[in-house]
Amino acid sequence: MRLIIFISSLLFSIPLFSQGIxxxxxxxxxxxxxxxxxxxxxxxxxxxxxxxNEKINSRSILLPTTLIRLGVSDYFExxxxxxxxxxxxxxxxxxxxxxxxxxTKIQIYQKEDAxxxxxxxxxxxxxxxxxxxxxxxIGTINKLCFSNKINDNFFIxxxxxxxxxGNYYGNVTYSMALNYSLSEKVxxxxxxYGEITNFETLMANFDSGFTYLLHENLQFDFSFGLGxxxxxxxxxxxxxxxxxx
Length: 245
What we know:
- This protein has a twelve-stranded antiparallel β-barrel with strand order 1-2-3-5-6-7-8-9-10-11-12-13.
- 0% of the residues lie in helices and 62% in strands.
- The chain is mainly β and 245 residues long.
- It is built from no helices and 13 strands.
- The model is unreliable at 1-18 (pLDDT under 50).
- It starts with 39 loop residues before the first strand and ends with a strand.
- The protein has one domain (16-242): Porin.
- The protein has strands at 40-52, 57-73, 76-89, 92-97, 100-109, 116-126, 139-149, 154-164, 171-181, 186-197, 201-215, 218-227, 232-242.
- The protein is globular, with a radius of gyration of 17 Å.
């Protein structure tokens, strides 16, 4: 799970419907939209996370984490995810390039002026990373991505997923982002999210943040999150860019 600063507990989320670039960051909920045909989109950021409980005491810095999205058609995109990790677990430090993720997102349902959208996302995680941070097993990340447009300024995005790391039973994931546009450039969100590891242990979290549209194809974002039933917090900054037609 990737993933302390609170600027406002009153922030309520991002409607990307009204903006020129729709991204899968900074929240944990993947958008139900895909990148348009022949368009390239790069979403990159920095994340600092701290966790402290009976099983783990850690600090992680992802610098950068980069998602590359290429639109093959208006309903299908290819995805590559890579990141550099600097981890410290019980004062043991490890760093290096993490395993490569190759994936796709396919839009299942979308109609003009429709208030509901649905997509399927799947990544294959390949053990190609630096030895100190590599997972030796091939893994998969899968999500059904939904969104409901309430009005021109407010929509809800939500995901239900299943991740398998090559051992044990796998993890069920969930998220629900409440997104609200304050203006044509600024949007905010609030989001409960989490996972049920090995179908046994619930790890519940919450995050919030905002995006600022610097240009029609360039977006800045800020987010922070915390664990609700465990001791975790993170802070993230990001920048996303989309090629022009």
